[in-house]
Each structure stands twice: as structure tokens, then as C-alpha cells.
Amino acid sequence: MSDGTHERIIRAQQGDASALAVLLQEHYVFLYKYLVKATMDPLLAEELAQDTMVRCMEKIGTYNGASSFSSWLITIATRLYIDRKRRWKLEMKWKRQEEGVRSIRWRFESRNLEWSEVLDALSRLSSVQRMAVLLKHYYGYGYEEIADILQIPSGTAKSRVAAGLNQLRKELSEDEHKEG
Amino acid sequence: MNTKKDEELLQMLSADLERLDAQYDDISPPALPGLERLIAEEALRRQQQSRRELQRFLLVALFMVSIVMISLGFAPVTYWILQAAVPIAALGCLAVVRLRLRREDAEE
């Protein structure tokens, strides 16, 4: 964590609204990009990024520096996403997920970029497996940290990562067979 | 488990996720004045909410205290019986638990 960020955190904890605003602005893009990958739904990612910022405003006093500020934001955002998913009905969830993937796909296609099979397979993973795979293999967190972020035992984090990778492998080999 | 295939899969995954990240490089974070306004509004909302919660707590506390005072005024005997009954019942339960534990120890 840079000295500037550390200083801003301290000032924000002392009630300095401008320091908090700068801190949130600095981390917004990182947070949003994490949420796009975790949810595979840019609109939902935007909503959750806003909710995370509001939660961060409430809880900034409780941040103790045990993890980096960005990890703390990821933890808040992930828990908000899990809470929201619990409230959704199954049908709504699928409808929303489809719309989200279509939106990302459109972004690729509108820039003449090829849509990837790996991302397609990733979007079809259950959100709990997708988040575990993402945190482990993209953000490089350890199983203990993932367990803490997702509020699950570390054994479960490990099995979710393994199951997610297995599922990805299976989906990709099925696609290869179809093409072959 | 095929480690080489796993490594390939992870490399592909990282490369594609980076490509996905790159698609959102052009998003702009919210403007500072907007964020400052949001923080101020949020602080005000929380202040009002905690004030409402305190008021609700005081109302409920007042209601309960008035019930106690009324029962003390109109039926003091019942009031004191009830006051005595609760600790006596708690002590009774504690004694029963202790006796049971002692009996189990003796049987062992």
C-alpha cells in the first residue's frame, strides 16, 4: 500500500470526507473490473460497486489494515454480491446472468474482438466457483484469504477452485469435440 | 491430474481475463464532487437513522418502565411475587443441573 493511500485511509477514518472521496475514486476502476469478472454482468457490477462504496463509507472506521485496502473492498463487494444472490429467485438469476454475458459479448464484438470460449465457459460456472477460481488464479489469493473473503472454510475454498477448474476443463473439451 | 493441461488452461484463463479487463479500461471513476456529495448525504442519512433508532428504543423503554410502575402501584404483591419468582426459578434450575452432574460423577 502506498504512503499516500495509507495517509488518506487515516484521514478518512478521522472523518475527512475529501480523503475518503479520493480513496474511493482511486479504487473504483479496480473494484468495478473485479465485479465485472466476478458477476459477468456489467450493470450488476456497477450497482454493486456503488453499494460497496456506500458500505465502505459506513465501515471505514473498522478497517484495521490487516489486508490491503483493495482486498478489503473485494471482501465487502463479494459479500454484497453473495447477499444479493441469496435474495434472487432462480429464474431471475438465470435471466440476469444471460443478459450480463450478452452485454460483455457485445462489447467485444463491437470492437471487432473475438469472444473467447474460456470466458464463455467461465460465465457458465456457478458464481461461487467462478469467484473462487478468479480470486485464486487471477488475483493470486491463498486459500485462507479466499475462505475469509467468501466466509467459508478453507477446505471448501479449495474444493470450489478445483471443481471450477474441472468444470472449465470439461466445458472446453466439450466445445472442442463439438467443433471437431 | 494432467498438470501441463492445467497450466495451459490457467494461462488461457489469465490471458482472457486480462482481455476482459482491457475492455473496461475506458470506464471513468465517479467525479470527486459527486462522491463528496454522496458521502455527505450518506453521513446525514446514518445520523437520522441512528436518531430514529434511539427514539424508538427510548419509547419502548419508557413503555416497559411504565408497565412495571403501574403494576407496582396497582398490584404490589403480584409484582413482588413475580420479581422473586424469576431468580428463585433460575436458582432451582441451577441446583437441579448441579445435582445431576454430581450423580453422574458418582455413578462413574
From TrEMBL, chain A:
<dbReference type="InterPro" id="IPR013249">
    <property type="entry name" value="RNA_pol_sigma70_r4_t2"/>
</dbReference>
<dbReference type="GO" id="GO:0006352">
    <property type="term" value="P:DNA-templated transcription initiation"/>
</dbReference>
<feature type="domain" description="RNA polymerase sigma-70 region 2">
    <location>
        <begin position="23"/>
        <end position="87"/>
    </location>
</feature>
<dbReference type="InterPro" id="IPR036388">
    <property type="entry name" value="WH-like_DNA-bd_sf"/>
</dbReference>
<comment type="similarity">
    <text>Belongs to the sigma-70 factor family. ECF subfamily.</text>
</comment>
<dbReference type="InterPro" id="IPR013325">
    <property type="entry name" value="RNA_pol_sigma_r2"/>
</dbReference>
<feature type="domain" description="RNA polymerase sigma factor 70 region 4 type 2">
    <location>
        <begin position="117"/>
        <end position="168"/>
    </location>
</feature>
<dbReference type="InterPro" id="IPR007627">
    <property type="entry name" value="RNA_pol_sigma70_r2"/>
</dbReference>
<keyword id="KW-0805">Transcription regulation</keyword>
<dbReference type="GO" id="GO:0003677">
    <property type="term" value="F:DNA binding"/>
</dbReference>
<dbReference type="InterPro" id="IPR039425">
    <property type="entry name" value="RNA_pol_sigma-70-like"/>
</dbReference>
<dbReference type="Pfam" id="PF08281">
    <property type="entry name" value="Sigma70_r4_2"/>
</dbReference>
<keyword id="KW-0804">Transcription</keyword>
<dbReference type="InterPro" id="IPR014284">
    <property type="entry name" value="RNA_pol_sigma-70_dom"/>
</dbReference>
<keyword id="KW-0731">Sigma factor</keyword>
<dbReference type="Pfam" id="PF04542">
    <property type="entry name" value="Sigma70_r2"/>
</dbReference>
<protein>
    <submittedName>
        <fullName>RNA polymerase, sigma subunit, SigY</fullName>
    </submittedName>
</protein>
<dbReference type="InterPro" id="IPR013324">
    <property type="entry name" value="RNA_pol_sigma_r3/r4-like"/>
</dbReference>
<dbReference type="GO" id="GO:0016987">
    <property type="term" value="F:sigma factor activity"/>
</dbReference>
UniProtKB/TrEMBL annotation, chain B:
<keyword id="KW-0812">Transmembrane</keyword>
<dbReference type="Pfam" id="PF17280">
    <property type="entry name" value="DUF5345"/>
</dbReference>
<protein>
    <submittedName>
        <fullName>Uncharacterized protein</fullName>
    </submittedName>
</protein>
<feature type="transmembrane region" description="Helical">
    <location>
        <begin position="54"/>
        <end position="74"/>
    </location>
</feature>
<keyword id="KW-1133">Transmembrane helix</keyword>
<dbReference type="InterPro" id="IPR035238">
    <property type="entry name" value="DUF5345"/>
</dbReference>
<feature type="transmembrane region" description="Helical">
    <location>
        <begin position="80"/>
        <end position="101"/>
    </location>
</feature>
<keyword id="KW-0472">Membrane</keyword>
